[in-house]
Design a protein that fits this description.
This protein is mainly α and about 110 residues long. Helix content is about 85%, strand content about 0%. It has five helices and no strands. The N and C termini lie far apart (about 60 Å). One of its GO terms (cellular component) is mitochondrial inner membrane. It comes from Branchiostoma lanceolatum. This is Cytochrome c oxidase assembly protein COX20, mitochondrial.
């Protein structure tokens, strides 16, 4: 890729490279269309149904985005902890501290 393509930023770049963005916007568009259409059928007022569409789009995007990003952050934190533990294990392998740790873990599992 060229440097210009990497530096460009836009809605397409955001949706492709941000976790949860694609699904959030897709569900938001669906929820907004259903909410706006239902409100139009109920009131027959196009202007207010458009407002209902925007509100239901925003609510759906936020209600999907926030928990998804929270779960994504939790997964990233756990993977970082596992990677750090693996790096520490590789560094300590074969040292006296590793043998002490292994013997302490064996004694803890026996009781």
């Amino acid at each position: 890729m060229s440097d210009d393509a990497e530096k460009s930023w836009g809605p397409k770049h955001f949706i492709q490279n941000t976790p949860c963005a694609r699904n959030s916007f897709l569900y938001g568009m669906g929820g907004g269309a259903v909410g706006g259409f239902a409100y139009f059928l109920w009131t027959s007022n196009p202007r207010r149904s458009y407002h209902a569409l925007v509100v239901s789009f925003t609510a759906t995007v936020l209600l999907y985005w926030v928990p998804c990003r929270y779960q994504y952050a939790q997964k990233r934190l756990k993977s970082r902890m596992i990677n750090q533990g693996l790096k520490t294990h590789i560094v300590m392998q074969g040292t006296p501290e590793a043998e002490l740790l292994a013997s302490a873990q064996e004694q803890g599992t026996k009781s």
